[in-house]
Design a protein that fits this description.
Layout: E1 3-6, H1 16-31, E2 35-40, H2 52-63, E3 69-73, H3 78-90, E4 94-97, H4 101-113, H5 123-126, H6 131-135, E5 140-143, E6 150-155, E7 159-164, E8 172-174, H7 182-192, E9 197-201, H8 208-217, E10 224-228, H9 248-254, H10 258-266, H11 281-287, H12 302-315, H13 318-325, H14 333-343, H15 352-361, H16 368-372, H17 378-393, H18 399-413, H19 417-429, H20 437-444, H21 446-457
Parallel strand pairs: 1-2, 2-3, 9-10
Antiparallel strand pairs: 4-5, 5-8, 6-7
Helix pairs in contact: 1-11, 7-8, 10-12, 13-14, 17-18, 17-19, 17-21, 18-20
Length: 462
């Protein structure tokens, strides 16, 4: 059976990279009628953040990436890792190390001064600590990497990859406090949970030969590996919160639809056979093939995501969209439904709804300089606003009638129609950019429209 997993660490807000990796793992499992496992890698006790696990679960649920097994916490499996590490020592495939952090820092500094790659110098491999030192509980357990030969594996994205064993560090497997490092825990867990495909970010590529050596040491068959390209900032650097939002919670709070975010992440290093950009999760699963994954780092472009999210917003049934907007505005459902048709085409994120519709519920402030910038003096502007208010007060209310009569008014006043329309738009909405003018007036109502025009007209001297 095909079995994949996502294994985030609860060290902060759930990362956009976690969603990206989870999506590909989920797709491979579902395409092959397999299982998708959620594992919480909480062995780095110093970096644990309270509540982070719950945020991970909430974010994956929001995205619709339902797991079939888990969540499984590594912290519940401590005795298993300890047993496995000691098993390797017993086989002569790992060893105890008593080197202090001060000594390791000194060795690292000396290596850097010589422009050498920092690594453990294998002191305790050559001269093991005494039984008494080991019994004190201050030793770590390190992997005993072969000093010659090479370690190879096949990657579904990158093909065959080979590492020279002499270049692989004797990494720590079990820390002195009895907690495992990533290298030991990931191999023990993936084997124990029968994970068939390890699909993860390319940053773990250099760790894979250590994992292969561990599988060999335990006499276990390694899983199939696939290392996805890292998401990149526009300047091609690794995606980071300094240049791009990385918290999944931020994307939810901004009003990105989960189906739009998954759609966009699908396009990061992968493409549909027919090159279309908008598609559902099911369509992604049905068409997924590792042969179409490009190993070069895709650029995560927020503007492109905004565009795609806007496409998804407009594809939602109006009732469903109105219901989703309730979490992003203080307006009630009836108010949302009244103004939604006017802003639907302009929304890129659900969070924009409040700002774009505020003018319907709260009187805006108006900068009279914007009105005078249209090329008419105070007297002409005051006259235009006053005449419009007088016209609208006695007019039947409705979009076609409003536009027709306002065009006639522009001719009467000697204004270019577009200038008068902009003058009215600014006076009514406080901005040069708003939903369509006459549809806005229709929804706003005669009384409120006339009141706003009179108020702004009164700001100009006679």
């Amino acid at each position: 059976m095909v079995k994949t997993r996502i294994a985030p660490s609860p060290t902060g807000d759930p990362h956009i990279g976690t969603a990206y990796t989870a999506l590909f793992n989920y797709a491979v499992a579902k395409k092959n009628k397999g299982k998708f496992v959620l594992r919480i890698e909480d062995t780095d006790r110093a970096r644990l953040v309270p509540g982070a696990t719950e945020k991970i679960l909430d974010s994956l649920t929001w995205l619709g990436l339902a797991w079939d097994e888990g969540p499984i916490h590594q912290s519940d499996r401590l005795s298993l890792y300890q047993k496995k590490a000691k098993e390797l020592v017993g086989k002569g495939l790992a060893y105890y190390c008593s080197c202090s952090s001060e000594r390791l820092e000194k060795v690292r500094a000396e290596q850097q001064a010589k422009k050498e790659v920092p690594r453990y110098d294998r002191k305790c491999r050559q001269k093991p600590p005494s039984k008494e030192e080991i019994e004190k509980g201050n030793c770590v357990i390190r992997l005993k990497v072969p000093e010659s030969g090479e370690t190879s594996f096949e990657d579904l994205v990158r093909g065959e990859i080979t590492f020279q064993n002499k270049d692989i560090d004797d990494s720590v497997l079990l820390k002195s406090d009895g907690w495992p490092t990533y290298h030991l825990a990931v191999v023990v867990d993936d084997s124990d949970m029968e994970i068939s495909h390890v699909i993860r970010a390319e940053e773990w590529l250099s760790s894979t030969p250590k994992h292969i050596l561990l599988y060999n040491a335990f006499k276990l068959k390694p899983p199939i590996f696939a290392h996805l390209p890292l998401l990149r900032n526009p300047d091609k650097s690794k995606i980071s919160k300094r240049k791009n939002p990385v918290s999944l919670i931020w994307y939810k709070e901004q009003g990105y639809l989960p189906q739009a975010l998954l759609n966009y992440l699908s396009l990061m290093g992968w493409s549909m056979p027919d090159e279309r950009e908008k598609f559902t999760l099911k369509e992604f699963i049905d068409n997924f093939d590792f042969a179409r994954v490009d190993p070069s780092g895709p650029v995560f472009d927020l503007q492109k995501l905004d565009w795609l999210n806007g496409q998804w917003i407009r594809s939602l049934p109006e009732k469903e969209l109105a219901d989703r907007l309730k979490d992003y505005t203080k307006r009630d459902l009836k108010q949302i439904e009244i103004v939604l048709p006017l802003v639907r085409e302009r929304l890129k994120k659900l969070s924009e709804f409040e700002a774009q519709t505020k003018l319907f519920f709260e009187e805006p402030s108006v900068d009279t300089k914007l009105l005078l910038d249209l090329g008419h003096n105070e007297k002409e502007t005051k006259e235009a606003l006053g005449e419009a208010a007088k016209l609208y007060k006695g007019l039947g209310w409705g979009t076609p009638r409003l536009e027709g009569e306002t065009r006639k008014l522009s001719e009467k006043l000697g204004w270019i129609a577009s200038d008068l329309f902009m003058c009215l738009r600014i006076a009514i909405t406080g901005s040069k950019v708003s939903p369509p003018l006459f549809e806005t007036l229709t929804v706003l109502g005669k009384e409120e429209t006339v009141k706003r025009l009179k108020k702004i007209s009164s700001l100009f001297s006679k």
